[in-house]
Sequence to fold (471 residues):
Amino acid sequence: MDKQKEAPERGSRVRRRVLLGSAAGCAVLGGVLMLLPWEETASRPSAPAPGARAAVAAGVPAALPGLAALIGDREAHLRDHPRDARAWAVLGSAYLEQGRRTADAGYYPKAEKALRTSLKVRAKGNAAALEGMAALANARRDFRAARSWGQAARKAAPKRWTTYAVLIDAHTGLGDHTAADRALDRLTKLRDGPAVMARAAAVFRDQGRPEDSAAALSDAAARATAPAERAAYLEQGGQLAWERGDREDALRHFRAALRLDPDQRAAQAGQGRALAALGRTTEALTAYRAALARQPRPEYALELGELYESLGLAQAAHEQYDEVRARVRSAGAGGVDEELVLGRFEADHGDAGAAVRRLRAEWRRQPGVAVADALGWALHRAGRHEEALRFAVRATDEERGGGVRSALYAYHRGMTERALERYGPARRHLREALRINPHFSPLGAPQARAALRELGEPSVADVPEWDAESG
Fold:
């Protein structure tokens, strides 16, 4: 087990930086690594909200008030029972979920300390802590480490269904869709229910099966009993509706999610996206600002900046672009790899050469479809169109793993083909982008339309000559 625990550590450049400071706030008592209590209070906290502990244990979304109560309860319990490995694992997973829900990467080092303490207290067969470390690595976008921790958790408890959900995310991040499909098959044999349906929906989406994905998410939302969990599935359904260009349906999903869980900030950002596409700009700006105030994710700042830029508000756009860099630095302090977002930003709004260097390194670490698309686009923006097309094809070619139907990916491929004077494929992919979602980007969609107008209709020269002998 020690070798299994050490392998993921060698694979993570980001996490090594975090571990240098992980001794802060810790002490060694009786041979066991102990965490000093955080935010010690004189009175015992209120009991966690019903379902919070079960949600965390099952790896599904929990309401923020319930999470806060669960964290307080476990911290108080561990001050009196410091050798309770299960409680340390629950606390670590709760910190992780809190970090995800608030986009506060400061919770991730706390989560790591708690999970590692659980493994110190009980190293053998501690699948909950191993799985928690895998989920933490996924949240930090360290998919190789996530796969290693997940495999260790699976070895410790082969029938623990939640481990396979974490492995799906890790395999997907590494671009290994065959392994993700195998993990889903194992998961569905072990468990049924809304959480499993939602995981299946994500795999279906990546396989280019949006209708199956939407149906699975609809069933998951209908069967979920906890408001926060149901809201999360509605938000994912809204994202699917947005990806297929259905602005009104996306907005309905996002609003329903927020009614159930006002802390569902991903749905609030989704509202901003849909409202902007509907031309309701003032409402869109308000929605984005509200999402960023409570969940300051760099991608939301990038989207808001591009919306401002599309409106001709250059100063406001630059302020948000500065926020992108600041948010990426903040996330990095918690061990989160935001190179993908930063690379996308640099390709369009900064230094394309720097974007290529960042994204090429990211590709070596975790060659997923999203990284292939971003690297291809950065290469195109840097003027390296032939190499760019290889990555654009990888992101959009189903046989190479690019099964997801993405207007953005099709747009990137079409613009790259246009630069290479491959006008027929360029028209086809630019039209595909606008057919999938005519409003996929406030900057990109108008550029796709302009490029199509410039390309015009196919000429006779674009049609290959018929050779009767070869057919």
